[in-house]
TrEMBL record:
Its cofactor is FAD. It comes from the Bacteria. Keywords: FAD, Flavoprotein. Residues 552-571 are annotated as: Disordered. Belongs to the GMC oxidoreductase family. This is Choline dehydrogenase. The lineage of its organism: Bacteria, Pseudomonadati, Pseudomonadota, Betaproteobacteria, Burkholderiales. Pfam families: GMC_oxred_C, GMC_oxred_N.
Amino acid sequence: MAALSDTPGATSTARRLEGEFDYVIVGAGTAGCVLANRLSQDADVSVLLIEAGGKDDYHWIHIPVGYLHCIGNPRTDWLYKTVEEKGLNGRALSYPRGRVLGGSSSINGMIYMRGQREDYDGWARETGDSGWSWDAVLPVFKRSEDYHGGANAFHGAGGEWRVEKQRLKWKILETFAQAAQEQGIPATSDFNRGNNEGVGYFDVNQKRGVRWNASKAFLRAAMKRPNLTVVTGALTERVIFEGKRCVGVEYRGDVPYRARARCEVILCSGAVNSPQLLERSGIGQAARLAQLGVDVVQDLRGVGENLQDHLQLRMAYRVNGVRTLNTASAHWWGKLMIGVEYALMQSGPMSMAPSQLGVFAKSDIDDPGITRPDLQYHVQPLSLDRFGEPLHRFNAFTASVCNLRPTSRGSIHAASADPTVAPVIAPNYLSTEHDLRVAANALRLTRRIAASPALAHYQPHEILPGLAFQSESELREAAGNIGTTIFHPVGTCRMGRADDDDAVVDARLRVRGVEGLRVADASVMPFITSGNTNSPTLMIAERAAEMVREDRRAGARSSVRTEVHAPVAAA
């Protein structure tokens, strides 16, 4: 285990591995980095941030194309897998989650995406708190943003979270964009104004062609403060309670440690790890806790339930007469030129996010019930049989399409009280009629785009899933064959109203039925956002920091009032 105590400003007394702190944050992913930064801005507050993974000093984290070396690598990935899924025709999937400073922002696709206005207005209705509405969260997004186009009505400048244009162009992607427009999908230069309908290149969290993760953005500067202690290589085993009051955590590196929290413990472990940590600590369905051999602190049936994820359907097309990454990188001299371009200019294929071109569209324009885009495309100038395998030796592109608002619900639960045992992840993909219908329509729309006049010159030929799948039932089967996660799990500790028995946290992210414990990560989303989920998680952490600081100030004022009005003891 490594305490990051060699940073400027650190002192041996301020950076103990155990002891008492005002706030203990579990998980140094996107949310944890933000909270550690914001809470430690108050010099009179002490903060401990605990991370199971290591430092983000692996070079492949920072080179954008290096996600290929980070996903599936135990140095940076938890290496989770799902159960065998009926909706995927019996297949189990790898389920990458970041296990390193910066969390999944260190291994993800770097796409800057907020979602749609209606997503957040739906959160506000679900929680009864207007602070989660689009109009309320837009200023929160803007506050931390450093947008390449400068500040305007929808974007901020000067914040920590750098947003840039991509440093590449591909003819096949620009032609796909033209084809999408021929199908009635408008061009757009910005997916982040509340209505993301359209086709265009994604904006990315990069700085001059280098990944900009949450650790760089929020943690590195904060680590110079003497009131912030960051511990890596430390697996949190459980949260400690005295009665119904959360008082700290137990975590393990080379030896066990215990850290007490004078004010709060805040879980930022993500949609996979936060619910299983709650269960190991006695918060969850009583019957499930009994099976784990864990004493019940609070019976909350919603813990680990409500899992939502975006299932992408990967369609691949062979093309002629246009270059793609398949052939550009097929030989050593091609790889050499790609490396030289990145070394000299930080541009080209090595600066590529996993997906470059985005499309947001409606799965059925004739359905009056679909009032906003319910599909998202991630389009790439490459193809391969499955993630981690070599690119095909012929020119091709991939158009992955996902249902933005699935109605299928899954679960994530602790498999054991032992924190080293992986959880049971059951996404339950394609388990509703709605999701099956949207999947079939998504495949049809992709075929219409591929058959558009703009692409005709390149003679696209579908190689995945293949033209043998035509009828409704065949397309549904094809979706099960080619569907895979796009790494957006949310909702397993969802927030809700006080009278919502399935909610795990309230609108202020406090775990129901106990004191001194919050959850602030993607797990609290009641509904998945209509797009990539990393920046919405950052926004949640920003709001959580506001709430924590507000509650601390309110508590201080209450304490002062009590002292002022206390009766004077008789002499």
